[in-house]
Specification:
The protein is an alpha+beta fold. The protein folds into 2 domains: 110 residues, Metal Binding Protein, Guanine Nucleotide Exchange Factor, Chain A (Beta Complex), CATH 2.170.150.20; 145 residues, Peptide methionine sulphoxide reductase MsrA (Peptide Methionine Sulfoxide Reductase, Chain A, 2-Layer Sandwich). The chain has 6 helices and 17 strands. The strands form 4 sheets. It has a 6-stranded antiparallel beta sheet, with no helix packed on it. α4 packs across α5. It is elongated and about 65 Å long. It starts with 7 loop residues before the first helix and ends in a 15-residue tail after the last helix.
């Protein structure tokens, strides 16, 4: 399994079973509908509808997504809560406190979680695309129905915790890419991949538009064999239509989120992409 990169503070809690300071997590304030997922492996764990204010300074939930956590009795008598997929330490479970009718509290370190907006009672799915400057790619995916979150970042290279300054040299092996979480009942990997092809010049080999360099090349990073087969099928469709396809099809590796100022860039500056536009290619 490919795990997400962790900072030293995140490792202290998630790997070494430490505890974050109470009232320090920004997730305490979140009330909007959505899904809380494991920061290390992206497994969905809790929905906002189960979150409540316990006054303890830690995100608290009274229910879990079935099968998402592992409970382990510790030597001190407490019950540890960990991710059932990657064993990341999440926090502890307490019973009998009478906070809610369910009389159960999953006391979770916010640093172990990531929040995806929108209430969904289904596991979100994930895709990773590279199509030149990630600002424009993220812009189009964020506007797409069924997309829950789109994050600009770097992937495919050999440098851990890469920075924009490093990646832009073209020497790290990383692509500027976008990680997409989506609702599989509202859209599909095939639809998103069609959008990917329609918003950039997939025939360009040396970059995208005016952005030249290996970090700007077109690529699909597949996470499953099914994703690979869908991408291969669409590439063959494009070739049958007479298009040249320079897009690389690569197995997914660690996705490193870019600096905060890169996220949702065009919304922040109030403008539109300068090198991405949508053209209709597929019949749907």
């Amino acid at each position: 399994m490919i795990y997400n990169p962790l900072t030293e503070d995140e490792k202290r809690v998630i790997i070494h079973k430490g505890t974050e300071a109470p009232f320090s997590s920004p997730l305490l304030k979140i009330k909007e509908p959505g899904t809380f997922i494991c920061k290390q492996c992206n497994q969905p764990l809790f929905y906002t509808k189960w979150k409540f204010d316990s006054g303890t300074g830690y995100p608290s939930f009274d229910e879990i997504i079935p099968g998402s956590v592992r409970l382990t009795l510790e030597a001190d008598g407490r019950t540890e809560v960990s991710c059932s997929s990657c064993r990341a330490h999440l926090g502890h479970k307490f019973d009998g406190e009478q906070f809610t009718q369910k009389n159960t509290r999953y006391c979770i370190d916010g640093i172990s979680l990531r929040f995806i907006p929108q209430e969904i009672d289904i596991t979100p799915e994930r895709a990773i695309y590279a199509a030149g400057c990630f600002w424009g790619v993220e812009y189009y995916f964020r506007k797409t129905a069924g997309v829950l979150m789109a994050t600009s970042g770097y992937t495919g290279g050999h440098v851990d915790f890469p920075t924009y300054e490093q990646v832009k040299t073209g020497l790290t092996g990383h692509f500027e890419a976008v990680e997409v979480f989506y609702h599989p009942q509202e859209t599909s990997y095939e639809k998103l991949t069609k959008l990917f092809f329609e918003i950039h010049d997939f025939s360009q080999e040396d970059g995208q538009g005016p952005d030249i360099g290996p970090q700007y090349k077109s690529a699909i990073f597949y996470l499953t064999e099914t994703q690979k087969q869908i991408a291969e099928h669409l590439i063959e469709m494009l070739k049958s239509k007479g298009f040249k396809v320079a897009t690389q099809l690569l197995p997914a590796s660690v996705f490193w989120p870019a600096e905060s100022y890169h996220q949702n860039y065009y919304y922040k500056v109030g403008s539109s992409p300068y090198c991405h536009f949508r053209r209709k290619i597929f019949d749907e």
